[in-house]
Amino acid sequence: MGQTNFLEMHVYHILVAFPLALMLDCTFCNAGGYGAPGIPYLIYTHNGGVTRNSLDLLGEVRLVTSNGNITACDFLFVDGVGYYADSKHNFIGQLNLDGSSVGKKPTVIIPSVGTVEGLAVNWVNRSLIWSDMTALKIYSSRLDGSNVHALISTGLVRPWAMALHPFSGYMYWSDLDSANPRIERAKLADGSQRRVIAGGSGLKQPNSITIDYTGSRLYWIDAGMDQLFSSDLDGSDMKANWKLASPRPTALTFFADRVYWTDSQTGDMYAAVGRSGQDQVTLNINSNGLDDLHAVDPSRQLSSQPDADECVVNNGGCDHNCINTVGSFRCSCSVPFVLNSDRQTCTFLSRCGITNGGCSHVCNVSSTGQPACSCPAGFHLHSDQRMCTDIDECLTSSPCQQSCTNTIGSFYCTCTNDTFLDKTGRKCEGCSINNGGCQQICVTSTLG
Questions:
Q1: Helix or strand or coil: residue 78?
Q2: Residue pair 183/203 in contact by the 8 Å Cβ criterion
Q3: I need a labelling partner for 52 at 20 to 30 A (CA). Which of 7, 28, 219, 341 fits?
Q4: What are the DSSP calls for 320-348, one per residue?
């Protein structure tokens, strides 16, 4: 079949399948309009790479061709670039949204990543955020791949989709933990203020999340229920919006009053009008391994004016890690260093400074830098080389002349009858003992 007939069939399918409410002014969908400044379009990942397409899916342009497993992508509108995760070759790369990077050697931004299912661009602070399902961490870096550091290092089971709201300062992610599927949020700057905003019996498999920046609501697809959900950005006012007309929904995005999502089972894209789910239609693209999806338009990145990145110049004056924030920056130190009071320089903190190196009493730093435990007088080191155990001096050394009483870490002596302790505190004196040292008569005084 020739190209003209193929397009004619596609146009016929779109016109028949789409209700009038879904039709756009396709003067910008045609050649000469699509891809021009101000014209919105879609980008999506699949087994063969990353593709750009017009909103009516009649203007396909391959942005990246790969034999890998492209699992996630996002874009930076002001720079005309996109970023994608190749989880087969384990890197995060950069592409040109105009298609000029096709056929060229991949521009690797961050090598040696694990399986990345969630990737997002912080367009305000010009940074990348991604979830690594191999390392079970959420990382951040600058756009050039420098200053890689973990924002979330604990409590992740199957970190999946990512979405950012830079102006509120929060990042959102889903975790497909089979025992506890959930959506969490934390501060973009440092991963603090982390909490679950959706979870429990109301979720099964939240495998895609996105934000409606105009309506200030979080939306997600639950593939276990084939359902679209939403809530306020803090997790309140949670709603089950509508059932999705596809068997295995995978990725979700918004543009204007339209909702788009992909389905990994059918290999197709779907669309609906508004947030009510009316007029759901199928957009046949027949692509294997459909995964991530984004609508590219300035409205999806509210401000293209980048925040000044103080970390670019001299690493912000930080000894180790410089983390850019909106209108400012902050320094952090790599373990086992700690941040000094000047908030920029780092000082080595031996393991003795962390939970006392596991020692119950005294922690010393050995020549190898490892903690070496010791005990104060009256204690001996247990066989675990960590705990100190009291020494019962009354049993081991018989220090008292008469009566000995053990105490924690020490002991004390006492004397019986009319005798009393001498200056050593261990021996007893009195007339009943060697006549008190007297040659003739010994008398015990009232002073002892």
A1: helix
A2: yes
A3: 219
A4: SEEEEETTEEEEE--TTEEE-TTSS-EEE
Residue 445 scores a pLDDT above 90? no
- What is the token pair recorded at 337? 């260093």
pLDDT at residue 194, rounded to an integer: 96
SS3 200: helix
Q: How far, in Å, CA of 439 to CA of 346, rounded?
A: 74
- Bridge partners, 199 (sequence order): 182
Would you say how long the chain is, in residues?
A: 448
**Whether residue 187 has pLDDT greater than 80:** yes
Nearest Cα neighbor of 251 from 238, 240, 260, 241 is 260
∠ CA 325-141-99, nearest 5°, is 110
- From the number of C-beta atoms within 10 Å of its C-beta (0-12, 13-18, 19+), residue 74 rates as buried
Torsion region of 369: left, alpha or beta (phi above 0 gives left; psi -120 to 50 gives alpha): left
Phi, psi angle pair for 335, to nearest 5°: -65, 135
Q: Could you give the CA distance from residue 114 to residue 131 in angstroms, rounded to a whole number? A: 9
- How many alpha carbons fall within 13 Å on the CB side of residue 319? 16
Instruction: Count CB-CB contacts under 10 A for residue 174.
Output: 29
Tokens of residue 428, six digits: 């007893």
Count CB atoms within 10 A of the CB of residue 389: 12
Whether residue 34 is predicted with pLDDT greater than 50 in this model: the reply is no
Q: What is the pLDDT of residues 227-273, one digit of tens each?
A: 999 999 999 999 988 888 888 899 999 887 788 999 888 888 888 87
The pLDDT > 70 percentage for the chain reads 85
Residue 120, CA distances (Å) to 92, 203, 219 in order: 11, 23, 16
